[in-house]
Every structure is written in structure tokens, then in C-alpha cells.
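User: Please fill in residues for this 699-position structure.
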């Protein structure tokens, strides 16, 4: 296996030479034709005009790749980008079949006109799909389309070997569903992902129960619905039928609410027929929560992922007693493989919650993933501390992912990290607890393997002994953290904290600030609030609706800063250089620095307490030069003038016209060691899918 892997890596690297050589070959072919020369790539003798060592090597590589077996070619093309596949088709006739099959492997239909064209039997597009549809393994239906049942039948006939079907945005119509389509044509399906959020008139689970008998090879079943139109119930008999129809299921996600389990149901649970292949289950369990937990334990002995267990104050004491007796009858090996749980706790249901954590500890379950959401109005600070101390800390040695979200009106600020033990395996953490504070230095010390940190709401702070308030010499190389992704939203943060992050987290690659306030001091000599992150080499920087100010309070007033300057490659720093960061760093070499910068102007609009909107413009070259000239001869007497115009606008009115009026306010300079791409907008923005892909790509 190892030799095959190295062979694959070698071949992929060779293809880089191959593609660059192909482009050079095309240029020289044109030259040869003009000179009256006949040129063939795969002749036995190297053409006269290929004499350099690099070109001879590339020619030999092509000869090598040209003779590869078909099975190896088919495997290699899976790793090529779409445009590279097109180029290789032109370069190798022997690769054409494998490449064409690979190009048809995944099809995405996101336009209604395109769908209608494919389903029109007289169109050229229909003929193309009829000829090549057998190669399609994955079909995605998304965008603003709606596929009727007769069209679905045509698609099934055109794509007989489909393996994976993804339908988003309710692209499958509920009108006449199942009346014409023949799901037996897709018995090869192993994955079915369907969004049914717009289905309102019929019960989608009941409709798909008629389809399930024709999908015997399905391994992943995902039927999503809007929470407002969730099917009222799914019975134990329904679940048994699903597994009878699809015995190979490994993951099942149904947006349904299982009913209250009766006393007879609890008796039957022990003798339920197991489904040993299932590893992931997602139901919206809101009734008889512990009874359903027992059912899942007996039904799915290989269960690893259990989602959407909601604790509500709706079980009677007798029901809880019956469920507790049943739990005591479970074997110690039950739930041993469980490592991921997603739990919701409703208001006034705290007394029900601790039982599940005690149960997990009793069975010594090595939980690696916890997604915890609670909603409460009372004494939240105390209870969340208890959850962390008594529950989450019990899995501190195994937890790899921890999501904590709590909505509360509890007004007292408290530090959430005070309750945390050391989590040596934690790589992904999300904290969204209102009116809480996260001590970043403590968090980094306790979570040494953390790669992604997302903090929404509250305050991000650093202790008095940290880099933010002490000389940099107190930090050593052993304190450098390997955090790779930081996402901050709806909180206040100081410029010194960002500088601390840059110094401490040298491997940080992706950073996003959304709906947040960044505060700091403006230099009287330069008029700049410098955020020195020049230890950081970012691939991605996103600032969405960020308010820069000289005050910790998120109020839009005369202390708001409207001009933002993004710069890079200002300093050549050793990875462990302990240079004292100060706010005068932009004073030296001012004009040279500004040549490498991008300037932005932001207008803010406040509409209620702690809430604002904004608009961002990229300054033109002449406007940037005007700002550079202004600050190159900056005088401290200009800043905070009594006659200065307040830098925000009337509600709903944004303009760039008077941007120069904000020059006396100073500017923000954000310095990065290097920066591949940056985005600054005035709108709150969240693209979870994109950031998840970036996180998944981290090594």
C-alpha cells in the first residue's frame, strides 16, 4: 500500500511537468507550422527544437505517462482539476476515455432552463446526456429549480448508474411525487440527501417510505426539513421498516420527532432487532429522551454519532423512573463506541440534564465530540460552570471538538475559561455564551492542540501576565501555539489582543472578524492606530461590519475611526523574535510602507443601542495618495478637534463623498507579515460552508 501511495504522489508531481510542457508544445507547434515543419509529439525522436534538459525531461515524462495502464490513469485523473483534465485530453489520445469518464463523474444542475433542456427529448443536450449519462456517479440539484416527477423519471433513465444524489433548496417538487418516477432505476444509490423544507401539504416521511423499498444499497440517508414543518412523529415500526428496506444503512438523518414511549414500548426495547451497520443517527428527540437513548443503545450497537437529544420539562416522574430502570439493565458494553453527541437543554430542564453525563461516565464512553446548546433565563453563570466542571471536564482527555452555545438574560459577566481543565486533544472549539469572557491566554495554555477557535458574543481578554501587558521577553518558543483558524463575531476586542494572537499563534492562516468592535490608542505622532500582526502570514483575512474605535464601548461617536489601511511584508521577523511592539512602528519609512497598502473608508450608522450598520468603499489611487500625503505631515493637534464632524450618517444614508472629512480622526493600520487575500465589507457575513472547507484542508 505504501509503495502505491508513493507511486501516486510521484505521478501527480510528474503531471505538473506534463501540463506545463503541453502549453509550451502548443506554442512551438504554431511556430513549426509557420516555418513549414511537421511536428508530432510522440515520434520516436525528440524534435529538433526541444534541446534543453528541461524539455528533454518533459518529453520523456510524456512518453512515460502515455504508456500507463488504464486502471492507473483512471485513478490519477481523480486528483486533477477540471481544467487540467481538459488539457490532458488534448495532450494524450490514450487518456481520452478515462478523462471523459471522469469529467462526467459529477454533474451539477442549478438552472431550470438547463434542467428543461436535458429533459427535452428533442434537444441536443438530451442526446449528449443519453450518450454519456452512464458515466455519471453523483448528481447535485440546487439553485432555483423545481423538478417534477415526470422530469425525475427522465433523469433516472438518463443516469442509470447513479451512486449519490444531492437535492437542495427543495428542488424535488411535492406535487405528484412518486406517481411517475421509477426509483427502481436508481437501486444503485448509496447516498441520498434531500432538502424537503418547502414540503407543507404532505408528510415527506410517509411519501419516501414508498420509495425506500427500491433503495436496498443505500448507506447514507439524509432528509432535511424546516423545523416549523417537522413531521409529528415516527414510530418504532417505521424505524424497523426503514432498516428492513435498507439493511446497509450507516448514517440516518430524519428531521422528525419520535413520540412519547409507552410502558409497552420500553419493554419491547430490550428485544429490538439490532442494526449493526448504523454508526450515525440524527432524530429530533424531544420526548422520553432517556427512553429513546436506551432504544438507540440496543438498536445501534455500533453507534458513534448521536445528534439532537433535547431535554424538556415534559416527562413525568413515573416516566423518568421507568426509563431509569431500563438504563440500569443495559450492558456495560452498550454505547462503548459512541464518541459524538449533540444535546439541547430547554429552559427549566436542568435537573434532567446531569443524568446523561453520569450515564456516559458510568459506561466509560470516550466522547470526542460534544455539541451543547442550552436556553435559560435563570442563574446561567452558575449552571454553565457546573456543566463544564462536572460534565465536559470528565472528557477532557478525549474531547477533540467542543461547541458550547447558551442564550441567557443573565447580566453578570464571568470568565468561562476559569472552569476549564486541560484539553490536550481538543482541535476545534466554538463558544457562544452571552455576557461571558474568554481568557485567551488560559484557553491556549489549556488547549495546546487547538486548530480552530470560534468565539461569538462576549469579551476576549488576556491575563495580566500575558504578552499584551508585559514585555515580550516573557514569552518563549515553547509558548508558541499552533492555532490555524480564528473566527470572532459579535464581541469586543482590543488591538493589543490581536497583536498577542499574532505573536503567540505563528501558524495562523485564516482569520475572520464579524460584527465586532476593535479598540486601541491612536499615536499622536502618526495619527494611526497600529495593529501589528506582522508575525502572522495569513492566507485569508475577512472583516465584516467591524467597528474601529478608541473606546471599549461600541458606541458610534467622535472616537470612531473611519479609515482602514491594510499592509503586508513590513518587517522581516524571525519566528521567535522578541521585538517590543509599539504604536510608533508606522513612523519610519512612511511613504515606502504606504506603497504596499490598500485603503478603505467606512461609514457607520447606529439605529439602536449596541447595534450598527456600515458601508465600505475601497479608496481610489488618487484618494489613497491624498491620505498618504496628509498623514506624512500629520500634526497631533489635528486629531480630536472640537469642530470635527461626527463620522456617521443618518439612518439608511451612506455616502463616500465626504470621506476626507474623516482624516482628522486618524486611521487604522493593520500590518500582516504576508496576506494572500482579504475581504472588507460593511455587512454581517457568514459562510460556514467555505470556512468548513478551509478547516478541513488544514493538515
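Assistant: Residues filled in for all 699 positions:
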Amino acid at each position: 500500500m505504501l509503495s502505491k501511495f508513493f507511486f501516486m504522489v510521484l505521478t501527480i508531481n510528474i503531471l505538473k511537468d506534463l501540463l506545463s510542457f503541453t502549453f509550451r508544445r502548443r506554442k512551438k507547434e504554431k511556430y513549426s507550422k509557420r516555418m513549414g515543419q511537421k511536428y508530432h509529439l510522440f515520434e520516436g525522436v525528440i524534435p529538433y527544437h526541444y534541446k534543453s534538459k528541461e524539455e528533454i525531461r518533459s518529453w520523456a515524462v510524456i512518453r512515460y505517462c502515455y504508456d500507463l495502464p488504464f486502471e492507473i490513469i483512471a485513478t490519477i485523473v481523480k486528483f486533477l482539476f477540471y481544467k487540467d483534465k481538459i488539457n490532458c485530453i488534448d495532450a494524450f489520445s490514450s487518456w481520452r476515455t478515462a478523462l471523459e469518464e471522469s469529467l462526467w463523474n459529477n454533474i451539477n444542475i442549478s438552472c431550470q432552463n438547463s434542467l428543461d433542456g436535458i429533459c427535452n427529448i428533442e434537444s441536443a443536450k438530451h442526446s449528449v446526456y443519453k450518450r454519456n449519462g452512464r458515466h455519471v456517479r453523483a448528481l447535485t440539484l440546487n439553485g432555483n429549480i423545481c423538478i417534477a416527477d415526470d422530469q425525475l423519471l427522465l433523469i433516472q433513465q438518463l443516469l442509470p448508474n447513479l451512486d449519490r444524489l444531492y437535492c437542495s433548496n427543495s428542488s424535488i417538487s411535492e406535487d405528484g411525487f412518486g406517481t411517475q418516477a421509477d426509483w427502481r432505476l436508481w437501486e444503485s444509490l448509496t447516498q441520498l440527501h434531500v432538502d424537503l423544507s418547502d414540503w407543507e401539504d404532505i408528510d415527506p416521511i410517509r411519501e419516501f417510505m414508498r420509495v425506500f423499498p427500491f433503495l436496498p444499497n443505500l448507506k447514507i440517508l439524509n432528509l432535511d426539513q424546516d423545523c416549523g414543518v417537522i413531521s409529528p412523529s415516527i414510530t418504532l415500526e417505521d424505524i424497523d421498516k426503514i432498516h428492513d428496506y435498507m439493511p446497509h444503512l450507516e448514517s440516518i438523518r430524519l428531521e422528525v420527532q419520535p413520540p412519547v414511549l409507552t410502558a409497552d414500548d420500553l419493554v419491547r426495547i430490550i428485544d429490538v432487532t439490532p442494526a449493526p451497520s448504523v454508526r450515525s443517527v440524527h432524530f429530533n428527540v424531544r420526548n422520553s429522551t432517556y427512553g429513546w437513548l436506551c432504544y438507540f443503545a440496543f438498536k445501534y450497537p455500533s453507534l458513534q454519532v448521536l445528534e439532537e437529544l433535547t431535554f424538556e420539562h415534559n416527562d413525568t416522574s413515573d416516566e423518568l423512573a421507568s426509563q431509569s430502570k431500563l438504563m440500569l439493565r443495559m450492558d456495560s458494553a452498550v454505547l462503548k463506541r459512541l464518541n459524538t453527541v449533540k444535546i439541547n437543554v430547554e429552559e427549566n430542564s436542568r435537573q434532567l440534564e446531569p443524568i446523561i453525563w453520569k450515564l456516559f461516565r458510568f459506561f466509560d464512553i470516550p466522547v470526542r465530540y460534544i455539541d451543547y446548546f442550552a436556553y435559560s433565563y435563570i442563574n446561567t453563570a452558575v449552571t454553565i460552570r457546573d456543566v463544564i466542571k462536572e460534565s465536559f471536564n470528565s472528557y477532557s482527555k478525549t474531547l477533540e471538538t467542543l461547541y458550547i452555545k447558551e442564550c441567557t438574560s443573565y447580566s453578570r459577566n464571568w470568565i468561562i475559561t476559569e472552569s476549564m481543565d486541560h484539553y490536550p486533544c481538543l482541535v476545534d472549539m466554538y463558544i457562544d455564551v452571552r455576557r461571558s469572557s474568554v481568557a485567551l491566554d488560559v484557553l491556549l495554555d489549556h488547549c495546546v492542540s487547538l486548530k480552530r477557535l470560534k468565539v461569538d458574543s462576549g469579551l476576549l481578554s488576556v491575563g495580566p501576565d500575558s504578552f499584551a501587558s508585559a514585555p515580550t521577553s516573557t514569552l518563549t518558543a515553547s509558548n508558541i501555539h499552533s492555532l490555524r483558524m480564528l473566527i470572532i463575531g459579535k464581541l469586543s476586542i482590543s488591538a493589543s489582543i490581536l497583536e498577542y494572537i499574532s505573536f503567540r499563534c505563528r501558524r495562523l492562516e485564516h482569520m475572520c472578524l464579524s460584527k465586532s468592535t476593535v479598540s486601541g490608542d491612536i499615536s499622536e505622532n502618526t495619527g494611526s492606530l497600529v495593529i501589528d500582526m506582522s508575525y502572522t502570514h495569513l492566507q485569508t483575512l475577512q472583516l465584516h461590519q467591524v467597528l474601529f474605535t478608541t473606546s471599549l464601548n461600541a458606541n458610534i461617536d467622535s472616537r470612531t475611526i473611519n479609515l482602514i489601511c491594510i499592509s503586508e511584508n513590513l518587517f522581516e521577523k524571525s519566528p521567535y523574535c522578541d521585538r517590543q511592539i509599539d504604536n510608533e512602528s508606522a513612523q519610519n519609512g512612511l511613504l515606502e510602507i504606504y506603497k504596499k497598502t490598500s485603503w478603505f473608508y467606512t461609514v457607520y450608522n447606529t439605529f439602536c443601542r449596541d447595534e450598527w450598520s456600515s458601508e465600505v468603499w475601497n479608496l481610489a489611487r488618487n484618494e489613497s495618495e491624498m491620505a498618504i500625503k496628509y498623514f506624512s505631515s500629520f500634526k497631533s493637534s489635528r486629531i480630536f478637534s472640537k469642530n470635527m464632524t461626527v463620522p456617521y450618517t443618518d439612518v439608511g444614508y451612506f455616502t463616500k463623498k465626504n470621506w476626507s472629512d474623516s482624516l482628522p480622526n486618524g486611521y487604522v493600520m493593520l500590518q500582516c507579515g504576508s496576506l494572500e487575500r482579504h475581504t472588507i465589507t460593511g455587512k454581517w457575513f457568514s459562510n460556514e460552508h467555505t470556512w468548513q472547507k478551509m478547516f478541513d484542508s488544514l493538515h
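For context: The first strand starts at residue 106 and ends at 109.
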